[in-house]
From TrEMBL:
The protein's role, per its UniProt record: Removal of H(2)O(2), oxidation of toxic reductants, biosynthesis and degradation of lignin, suberization, auxin catabolism, response to environmental stresses such as wounding, pathogen attack and oxidative stress. These functions might be dependent on each isozyme/isoform in each plant tissue.
Source lineage: Eukaryota, Viridiplantae, Streptophyta, Embryophyta, Tracheophyta
Localisation per UniProt entry: Secreted
EC numbers for this chain: 1.11.1.7
Protein name as it appears in the record: Peroxidase
Signal peptide: 1-23
Positions bound to Ca(2+) 2: 190, 242, 249
Amino acid sequence: MAQLVAAFFSSVLIFSLFSPGKSLSLNYYDKTCPYAESIITNAIKNAASEDKTVPAALLRLHFHDCFIRGCDASVLLSSKGSNKAEKDGPPNVSLHAFYVIDNAKKELEAWCPGVVSCADILALAARDAVVLSGGPSWDVPKGRKDGKTSKASETTQLPAPTFSISQLQQSFSQRGLSMDDLVALSGGHTLGFSHCSSFQKRIHNFNATHDVDPSMHPSFAASLRSVCPQKNMAKNAGATMDPSSTTFDNNYYKLILQGKGLFSSDQALLDAPKTKDLVSKFASSQEAFRKAFVNSMIKMSSINGGQEIRKDCRVVN
């Protein structure tokens, strides 16, 4: 859940925006669009074979969608007129792979028009992204509806890479997610890449006493400073979230224990006894991490607040 700007989490977010998806079911499309899941999987596989960054991008899209108005595909809507949509909010300008969802939707509309929501495509695509990266599979509950509202201003509600453990806890709890969910879902950072802007403050002018965040391993900080100098930075400079950034594994947790978490929010997981214990548990057991991640993904993905089935994921009907 990398983010380009730090945004203090606003506690005015009303939890009632998010209604847990009581109507979701595992066999939702069995009669109306039986090939839905295989159509989506094929679209993801085709895109990932051309661009290895696609799985991480799709997982991130789903997170960024669910954390604003529930998993309602509002992140896919395009800005229109004076309304600036979520995808154009500062934390989301580096989101990509929207075309993969478009490709899946186009194929689904050919087979079963007006049946499969863009929100369900995103939830299934996130699962497929994890599987393609060597991670666990799970049955995704389906039946989400697509939202009609998307505002760039609401993207300040996303957890920022600068968040402390208390800010992270507040952000997750306002969505009905626990400390266990926070640590498990943070493991999504095993995939992907971050631009320098998300961790720049940790490696230059950290505070009045330290130029570099003292919680960082010195060699790790030095390598990041060489990639992200204070001046004359290369366009799109940054670092992978972990060295095996296209493989879904538990290295993320091992790195945190070594002081090599990329974001302040990653390293912050060691700042509370409960989350620290979970980091240690997941670092020592890949199986424990996989199981927890699946449970938390199903829980997060079931928050839904949509109203319609969009014909085109980029525009409301």
